[in-house]
Give the backbone structure.
Amino acid sequence: MMSNRGLETALVAVGAAQVMKLPIHYCRTGKWDWKQLFGSGGMPSSHSSGVSALAAYTATKYGMKTPVFAIASMLGIIVMYDAMNIRRHAGEIAIQVNDLDEDVERLTGNHPGLFHKKRRSELKEALGHHPSEVAAGALLGVLLGYAGAVISE
């Protein structure tokens, strides 16, 4: 069976970041939220961890002047930019949309059925990351990517 150590290292980094979200969330809120293991958003960014691990693994194993490192780095830049900007802003918009029913109820004197139907489910609000969450994920990924490359030698 053919093994891809770079992919395995990146997946371990994603898993490690997801597992770390659970105790970090508990320290911040005092509540265990097992959804943190599988959800997006939160500290640290598992997406950033995975792509950073792949780039660090590639740089350590093959060098920084190779096309494969350039590809891994560009992938990482795009993913981290998306997490900090597009997905985070979509999450902020979801918060506002989720509050619309309450706003309409307040404006109509708590009689929402007169003017609109209440949504059955809310939009997911934790989509993206703050820069510190992306940075923490990237740092974790670089450390695991480097370790994965050194161990595989």
User: Anything to note?
Assistant: The helical segments are 5-29, 46-62, 67-84, 86-107, 131-151. The radius of gyration is 20 Å. The chain has a mean pLDDT of 83. The chain is about 65% helix and 0% strand.
